[in-house]
Amino acid sequence: MSEIHPLPLTRSEEAGNKPVRLVRAAVRIALITHHPDGDRCLFVRHHIKGLELPGGAIEAGEMPRQAALRELAEEAGVQLPPDHPLKLAAFIPVVDHRGGNWLDVFYITVVTPEQLMVQQEAEFPICWLTAEEIQSKVDPQLGSYQAALMALDGILCQ
Hints:
Layout: H1 11-14, E1 23-33, E2 40-46, E3 50-52, E4 55-57, H2 64-76, E5 87-95, E6 101-111, E7 126-129, H3 131-137, H4 143-152
Parallel strand pairs: 1-6
Antiparallel strand pairs: 1-2, 1-4, 2-3, 2-7, 5-6
């Protein structure tokens, strides 16, 4: 049986001066590999959102880093060791289409082809995109678009 963890209301929400807003946190991970013809970033093809970085909601009791590695394994089938270095890259606020708010926490990491050998079945189809392919194939309104391009440009990897 799952437990319900109610979110605390602000004083303004409790007093009825502001509408109650749903606030949740999610993680995304920009996984970069170096190729002879240019660096590439891993994307998953979500059935509703299209191409985006692997990620999802942080579960109760889970740390953001743990969630990022779990979501990478679930969505893309890529399992990295728990101690694999991840760099916290950005926080991007998102307004949910249902009226709530999300905070997307973005991590980046660079992997070698050897580190990608151990995989499980992926939830979504995956593809490796160059910066040019991201610009032409990914919705620029998604946080994944900006975070992936910055990661490939090396701005966030240093």
